[in-house]
Amino acid sequence: MINEPSQRTGSARHRVVVTGMGIASPLGVDEKTVWKNLIEGKTGIGPIRAIDTSALKVRNGAEVPEGLAEARLKSMGRRPSDRALDLAVVSAQDALLNAKLLSQEQEIVPQDVSVIYGTGVGSAESHYKSMQAMFEKGPQRARPTAVPRCMYNAISAGISLQFKLTGANYMVVSACTSATNAIGTAYRMVRDGYAQTVLTGGSDGFFDPFFYPVWNNIGVLSKIEDPIKACRPFAADREGTILGEGAGTLILETLESAHSRGVPIRGEVLGYGESSDATHVTNPSSEGQAKAMRMALNEAGVSPQDIGHINAHGTATHGNDACESKSIRSVFGDAADDVPVVANKSYFGHALGASGALECISAFLALEHGISPPNLNNESPDPECRIHMVGAKPVSIDSRPVMKNSFGFGGGNGVLVLGPSN
Known about the structure:
2 domains, Peroxisomal Thiolase, Chain A, domain 1, 11-stranded mixed sheet, 33% helix
């Protein structure tokens, strides 16, 4: 266990490794089940159960299977509170157990571990319930507990309180790039000696009667009624994305710390790049995306030819997929003809601020197993998306690094370069 505060060690840079991962997703709440479903091509998208969708245009979504998160919370002595926080706590527990920073048999003790977490919409369930109560009962009956429940940092604070993590504790909020930005920030903290160990990732849960209908009306969700076929990244016949909830957590620490603790290494963060399009709040820019990709490659010290596969942002919207393809082609040149591209949102849905964490975990699992999951619903690849998509069956991949792309409303771009455990 890590109990003493870490000290910054001058200007030396550290290798940053992953020693724990945890996931709460539409494919399951343990990584073995998630990986099995990914490899077998089983989507987590289905009819939405959490709210009444009868008056909505799009009735499909990707929800965490009913009862799984609740059972895990009960085993921790917790009651469900806010969906985003609940999912974050469930995934954080597994990551800490996986990294041997937590034991089921021993009492939780304070540890100098930072919590740097991402979210797109924060405690959406708490916001909805608080506003509903105020409008129904009047402002004089508004509950003061809404203040701590509705803070965006209620998620990182909740993780910190649950597991007695005493390092830095804050949220990164940058729409669909949030988790990737959080992981990148955590990586830099560990690399530069500001923290020895960081719990990082992202969480979002927004299937409530306010937030989901707003997205339903924005015009980017797929109206394809069959949930299995609804989300079709980079396909010529794609019609839009499908929202999903979930949380993914990773434990980052220095290579020296992992070795001193004798814990297995799951992977390594090699580089991170970020940029802002500064062009439009919702329309992406290939120049901004390419800038972040090049920054990540440069920081990792690798060339495009060194990348073994790309885990794409891949929203299945017309503009985003075309723009990301153009960005990849701009950075990779002719190598884009050969580097395999996988898009996980046809499995997890678009989990907004949690997407980068779920997809990073998928990428690390692919590296561990030497296999890329198949792409779903890409029977007719869009000829304008000139990239090399993985087909309908899993393919073998080597141990070269993977590039993970995340792009969000507001023009934010985040790209990670991830490496294997060796």
